[in-house]
Amino acid sequence: MFGTVHVWISSEQVAHDLLAKRATIYSDRPTIPNLPDNRTSGEYLALLGRTETWKRQRRLCSHLMHTSALSSLHGYPSLERDRFLHQMAADPPSYLEWVEQFTSRTVSRLAWGTPHPAQVLRHTTFGLLETISPSGALPNILSFLRHVPAWASPWKKKEGARKALEERLFRANVGFVEERVGRGEAGGSFIRTVMEEGGDVDEARRVVGLMAIAGALTIGSPIQSYLLAVCHYPEWQRKLQDEIDGVLGGGCPQWEDRERLPTLRAVVKEVIRWRPPVPTGIPHAVEKDDVYNGYFIPAGATIHALEWGITRDETMYPDPEAFNPGRWLDSAYPTYREPLTQYPNLAGFSQFGFGRRTCQGIPIVEQDLFLAMGGLAWAFDICKKRDPATGRDMFVHWNDYTPLLIAKPTKFPFDAHPRSDDKMARVRERYEVARALEEREREEAEGYEFADLGPEGVVDDDVSRQSGGVFQVEEDKGGVGEAKQFDAEEESDPDVPGLLYRGSSASSEGSWPETEWEYGRWGSGSAPCVVSLDGGVAGEWKADGLGVKGKHEPEVRVLDIPGSWRWD
Ligand code: HEM
């Protein structure tokens, strides 16, 4: 393809033979045309070539993950899960937002001991995903476009602005931990561990940043796929609920219960198999000419372990299109393994890659997914939504996923019926604990400048925008919304992407928490966003790939428009 040889592997055995057994030559990464220094810059460990920097960074990443796993990830996933269940109970249609808040807040806590950077992290991470995905930026397909000079390249401008913001975010986060360590108030985090051990904080800033990036957007995919799976396979939701109720006698699954909940672990693993979060894998590169089964593979070829294909192998996964956690629990299946107190688990699963480049985040993935899916099954009966007009189930797609490197199901309708009043009372109780902590954390962070990102960690500026203004909006949410300050930015260059609006809103009657909003103008997102001016609809567009970052998918009425702001 345009002068590069690509090798696609859709068999786990072949992937293992090449990428693991011949790891000495198959552990490099290819150059990403739209991020041409990815192999050398030391910014993103997962994208580095097989260099000394990669080896050092991978060792550090592995050490931090191990240390954190030993302390059960400081209980952060469980704390955020309780908040997540509460959000889901309050407003199920906004599940995309709640899922992403759950994953990005959890990983922010793990990385820096605070959830505060989560919103900006989501923003910068999504941008990086676009930068490196084949479908996210044209130079990744038409590689000669990488030679377009920076001033003329919309991709370079966009990436430059994104990177600058990310850099400021990561520096600010590390500064925050430093300050808190100095005061003896820092919660457990990867960065704190490095500081306590006298490690290289400068390098750790990048490694921990990459770990946060890796966790912020990936884990949401299987949580959303779980919701999709139980809409199509309600019998597995029932089996899961039977196990949870039978074993825990009404309690909500905690990480300590994992040995006793094999069905829950099987559901977690099967969701990942059924809908691989990284369906095309992250490519390796081969450093020397090689021959395998009569095929010549030239040095420099890009090697893709096609995770999707691997999960469709009928010898390993009979009836592969079916969502069937039973394949991990019943000795009649080739994937069954004993003892069930330990298996199934995610260690060594093909979906996390091969050889020396395997994923380092499995302890986080495993705990986040166990708690999130276990909590959802414990609290809700998820089912297809009934159309009030026809009385029929509304359409839920089967496999309509987003096109970037990390694939997620596009939005679909469902109902989340609370399973009992008692459970909802417990959700509220546990949320109160999480909320009290959040209040304290908000106060702590108040005096701290998170890279000038604003008191709520909202993106404050972006070089891709060229002028700005401030105006007021009122949101349409059953008449109980409080109008809040909104920042709007005009973009004079329609080809330069960026946020058009951002701001925050809160209910004046306490019916929903303060939330942040971001609206974009173009991109691949699917949430429609309507903006009206002076009561009339002035424009309608899809929110950018970030989706609508607030809790609502509202109509926004602009009340006051500054002279500098122009509709275009
Ligand atoms: C559902 C969630 C996740 C999935 C499906 C996933 C999957 C993957 C895959 C397929 C690779 C490439 C492996 C290869 O090249 O052979 C990878 C690499 C990596 N992952 Fe994950 N990952 C997930 C979450 C995480 C999390 C939470 C972290 C946080 C620490 C993480 C850290 C990494 C790192 C550091 C690498 C690069 C390793 C290297 O290049 O040496 N991942 N992951």
From TrEMBL:
Q: Which SUPFAM superfamilies match?
A: Cytochrome P450
Q: Which GO terms describe its molecular function?
A: heme binding; iron ion binding; monooxygenase activity; oxidoreductase activity, acting on paired donors, with incorporation or reduction of molecular oxygen
The UniProt keyword set, sorted, is: Heme, Iron, Metal-binding, Oxidoreductase
Please list the residues that bind heme: 359
Query: Keyword Transmembrane helix: yes or no?
Result: no
Names of the cofactor(s): heme
Residues annotated as region Disordered? 444-463, 470-497, 502-521
Against Pfam families, the record matches this protein to: p450 (PF00067)
Q: What InterPro entries does UniProt report for this protein, alphabetically?
A: Cyt_P450, Cyt_P450_E_grp-I, Cyt_P450_sf, Cytochrome_P450_fung
Locate the compositionally biased regions of type Basic and acidic residues: 474-487
PANTHER family in the record, alphabetically? CYTOCHROME P450 2E1 (PTHR46300:SF8), P450, PUTATIVE (EUROFUNG)-RELATED-RELATED (PTHR46300)
Q: Which family does it belong to?
A: Belongs to the cytochrome P450 family.
Supply the name of the protein: Cytochrome P450
